[in-house]
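The following block was generated as part of the benchmark described in Methods. Ligand: F0G.
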Amino acid sequence: MAHQWRGVINEYAERLPHFKEVVTLGEGGTPLVHAPALDARTGATVYVKVEGANPTGSFKDRGMTSAISDVASTGGVEYVACASTGNTSASAAAYAVRAGLGCAVILPAGKIAAGKLAQAVVHGATLVAVDGNFDDCLRIVRELTAEYPVALVNSVNPYRLQGQKTAAFEIVDALGDAPDIHVLPVGNAGNISAYWMGYNEYAGRTTSASIDDSATKIAAVATKVPQMWGIQADGAAPFVKGEPVEFPETVATAIRIGNPASWDFAVEARDNSGGFIDAVSDAEILEAQALLSAQVGVFVEPASAASVAGLLKAAAAGKVPSGATITCTVTGNGLKDTATALGSYEFDPNPIAPTVEATVKALGL
Ligand code: F0G
């Protein structure tokens, strides 16, 4: 019988708020890929949750289907707006198209990867570049949406986290229970809060991010919850410092954030799970990105590789329990930021003659 994945709202309807109108691009249902190359380095069993396989190439689609469905179901506004380091804007722009809404994106000038910018443009969003960082953009969008009939679709909108929690559901569905440890990059801290909520709700408990207790009225699927390990970039590590960072800087532009909005939820996830939030250097991020490409077969953007970089750092420090089951979210597709991945590489500037002989010679066969 014909069957197609129906998007996270329809697949997990009983554990999500009810929406009169569901705006979906079929998000979710992403691969959980076993990574033997990471097993070898950690002594654990490691899976990567490939969120770059979502319709707009990042995990943001899980939360955008629910945020935009809420806007469409509630009515009364014709515009949505978000601040973004790139992925949220790409996702908001695409889902706004499906809902027939306008979309305004407020972005830090010069700090958005080209692929993400292209997505916002082709989906018809109105782009505003700000001479400031993401935190400035979010402040502007909060004030703007408070005063004008424009709906805010950043992750401070609670419906965003509702959709994003489904990634934890999928992991438990795939493994049969929660992993021992879940590792993911932390920027504005919405995703770590959403995963923690998802894991808890699947185990029959709520968290502060939960918007009702309906999940506890359904039979628990998981017998436990994982430790949450959050990873930031050294130059943008407010949780590690214990206070906001005024001028965040990192090659992983997606997590170039100094004043995370979901601070309290993230601290709850860290502390109540017995986990930690650590930081890794840009060099470690780029090494992990290269390793994922060359040895796991998954091309991710730099921010996504922070999770794996953090896992490898923990392994080197002897913090990874041997034989543990570990899941790592790789949050966005590498195709969004090819410039960083390629560095100074240039595809052959001296093309060969169009013959098999010349090709054989070029290949050194
Ligand atoms: N990884 C990627 C690829 C991201 O785009 C983001 C956030 C994160 C990790 C961090 O997730 O903010 O929930 O802690 N990107 C946002 C954006 C800020 O505007 O696209 P978080």
